[in-house]
Please model this.
Amino acid sequence: MRIEGNTNTVTQANVDLFAPIGRNPSGSERIERKSMSAWQHIRYRLFSNKLAMTGLVIITLIVLMAIFVPLLSPHNHYTNNLENTNQPPSWEHWFGTDDLGRDMFVRTWKGAQVSLFVGVAAALIDLAIGVVYGGIMGYYGGKVDEVMNRIAEILYAIPYLLVVIMLLVVMEPSLTTIIVAMSITGWINMAWIVRGQIMQLKNQEYALAPRSLGASNMRILFRHLIPNAMGPIFVTLTLSVPGAIFTEAFLSFLGLGVQSPVASWGTMLNDGINALTVYPWRELFPALCLGLTMFAFNVFGDGLRDAFDPVMRKS
Amino acid sequence: MMQKGIYTRYIYPFEFFTIPKRVVMVPMIRFIVQKLVFMIVSLYVLVTATFVLMNAVPGSPLQREKATTPQIQANLEAHYGLDKPLIQQYGIYLKNLLKFDLGISMKKRFYSVNKIIADSFGYSLRLGIVSVITSVVAGCVLGIIAALHHRKFLDHLAMVLAVIGLAIPSMVMAPLLQYLLAVKIRLFSVAGLDSPLDYVLPTIALSSVSIAYIARLIRTTMTEVLHADFIRTAKAKGLPGHLIVWRHALRNSMLPVVTYLGYLIAGVITGSVVIEVIFAIPGMGKFFVQSVVDRDYPLIMGITVFYAVLLMVCRFLADIAYALVDPRLRNFKKKVA
Model:
């Protein structure tokens, strides 16, 4: 049938040409699989990522070792044993002993406690400050955003490690000081991530609905917007843990971190470096543990990012 | 005019030079001035914080173990200007900084901070330059290999190397390299920076993280670029593979690396602190650590300010370099023209 430029004919033609075929009775078109929710998808993608799972297993192992080894071991991290200095690894001392005869196995896992604590605490403080600051920046926009963003930019331009080193030189060295010093400029990255997210989300209908019901700005921001930005926030949080662990080790390496007799991977690396040619185990075990921890957190964080945002995947 | 789409960002970085100067220079200059103002404000904040901290610390550079008579103490204070009110001292401090005078060291008598920096900076600079070049070249090579063998064995190998390099901090990498390559098989000397061969281990330790990062950046953008239309055109013209990679794909994948350069330099500078200690290189980082151990406040503050200026200037230059190659300039062009 020739179709003319006349709409009427076309409609007529369509009716003639296209007849409904109905449903295929064999059932081959039925959707058998249950549909997955967004969270199920994320979990599925994360769990099927072998590298990320390796990271998670390593993190779990390190956490368990850090908790239980110092509790269960017959040795402790501070008793000197001057008859047994610089022993190579043996059944008695799995990682050998250091120059004061202290058991390196216990000291290494005691150091893991310090590193994990600093890493998680610093990341959580960054989270708290960054979410509030970034949330306000992104939600209010305009002049508020302009001013707050400028302040953040100025702080961000100051080299992070230098600020931390300067503060620690002046303040009493302790775990709290390290965490405080690290949080002074550490939150900016998180703030910018949250800002970007909130700017995207704030014009969505579910943010409009509570506003029309008279909810306060703070309620909309923290009850409705932030929970929906949790994915990127969580990824940033995970990826900032290895950074904090590295900074703590760096500072302890310089002698600015935790003080003896408390063990830290940084101080142990610094102690071991002078004895590297003679007693390599004093350097190698803390080095391996630090490298493994950072590897695990990085890999797991990458996996989380891929799981939350398959489009941004750095494949 | 090119259509707006995902491929609009792939232009020749050097297209900038073909755009009429009058059109580009106005936003460029505005951008540069803005960045310059930011840099100066940040520097001012840092310098002021340094001064406040320096004065918050108990003790003064003139305290010695031997008791001095009050008269001598007063004379000394007058000589170094410490008897003036704090606000005036602050002014003098700022004025001295503008003249690049960083003060005197407390522990190394008769040494000014300037002298210490001048003596040691050469080592750090040489190591830093070698590391930056190594990072960019090795990172690009790894990234290109990975992108060209996308999802094949070489790609996976390069990316596993990159993940490991990214995760292992320099202060772990350095002792491991030292132990394996210098102590065990004696290929290199354990410490020092006397012969060209001595640069190998510190450079690897210093640039492993940035090599990995650049490799990943290049791989991501290059895989995308390799699917762009102009690559197909180049292939259709019969251009040989290496020319396609070198002339078309690599240049267009370099943009993120340019942005990263500022951070790369920052990483190399702060990383060198630890590396210099581990490899016993008499560079600035080693003096920095020594000053921290000695609590030599003027030296700490002086080197901090020096490092900060260095870092900020590098970042500023990287920002400008990025602006020069940033395709968003073309949006300005659209707006104006």
Remarks:
- DSSP finds 13 helices and no strands in chain B.
